[in-house]
Design brief:
157 residues, mainly alpha, Four Helix Bundle (Hemerythrin (Met), subunit A), 6 helices
Amino acid sequence: MVERLRGIPNWRRLALPASVILNLFLVALIGGQVWHNRRSDAGFGTPLAGALARAEAILPSQDAAAFGAVIKRDAPHYAEDWRQLRAARRELRRKITAEDFNQEQVRQALATWQTAWGRFFGDFSGTLIEALAQVSPEGRRKLVAERRAAPGEPPSP
């Protein structure tokens, strides 16, 4: 058996394990991307949900519970706005990546997205302010400090 292995070139002994490892990596990469896209399409893993989860994680437990209660209580009020915003974003993305790029269609899709964003933010901002009112001064300071420390964020006033 040892003599048979000696006759096989080194590259052939490494090719199969390297191929298996590379294929497993690619399957994991593609699977992760598909899973992420399905979660985002279903409404999970959205930037808003992530930001709210981070805020609750930063806050002391009593503040987090009060903050989360207001956000969850008012979710039905801004849920439809959020769905419309996501739909407008998908349509804008589709127009931008279309083979036959049409400036006017992209301009219209961008205007629709901006309108949806304004509607969502207008409805959600009241909820956010009310939720922040339930948080202690210490908790609000923690949120602001964390926001300032976030990488890639524009400077705060």
